Amino acid sequence: MANLIDSEAHFQSRALEVGMSDGVRQALRDGGIRTMSHLAFAIGQPNQPLTNDEVGAFLRTLLSREATLQEVALIKRITFEVQTYLVAFFTPRSRAAR
Q1: What is the domain extent for residue 22?
Q2: Number of structural domains, the chain?
Q3: Up-side HSE of residue 13: CA atoms within 13 Å toward CB?
Q4: CA-based angle 88:10:15, to the nearest 5?
Q5: What is the pLDDT of residues 17-73, one digit of tens each?
Q6: What is the value of pTM for the model shown?
Q7: For residues 14 and 95, is the Cβ–Cβ distance under 8 A?
Q8: Cα(5)–Cα(39) distance, rounded to whole angstroms?
């Protein structure tokens, strides 16, 4: 799983699968969000619900315009996925360290 959360190719592939536009994917790359692990902490933090306002502000910064409802929904979806991956990745390691 470490390869997936830190893979630029996997992040781009997943973004395409969920229907993220080329413009949003490019804006994420330009903003330094190139992997799942980058996105997991770019908005909120794992196990914390995201609001439309938080995601809208994040996208407004990246896109220099208001985000569409679809763009907000897609970012919320993929952010939830990546945060879930990270929690699944780190939970066994934190238990083992105890």
Answers
A1: 2-97
A2: 1
A3: 7
A4: 95
A5: 999 999 999 999 999 999 998 998 898 877 788 999 999 999 999 999 999 999 999
A6: 0.84
A7: no
A8: 10
